[in-house]
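Lecture 7 notes: from sequence to structure.

We start with a single chain of 103 residues. Read the sequence below before looking at the structure.
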Amino acid sequence: MTEVWAEIRRLHKSEQMSIKAIVRRTGLERNTIRAALVADEPPKYQRDPAGSADDGFEPAIRALLAEFPPDAGHGDRRANRVGAVLVGAAGQGREVAAVVCPD
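Now the structure, written as tokens:
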């Protein structure tokens, strides 16, 4: 969209093209052209992080990880133990525990 924004502004400022002519040339809506001409910078796509289905289980996972002390160099075993407890609840406990406790 940045290139389109720049092209709209160039056509209007440098080529002295009217909004109506830009609409015909680009196929965009008139209000879109107007918004591009008013804006100081190109539009940015911003979206909040979607999260995960496992986010609700993180407090329970952290509590279970606190119960099981970490084995030296055996983080996978620890995650498997916690995952075994949670697998009945969501079916994804092992993967979530591995992310929460990567060691």
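The chain has two domains: 2-38, 55-100. Keep this in mind for problem set 3.
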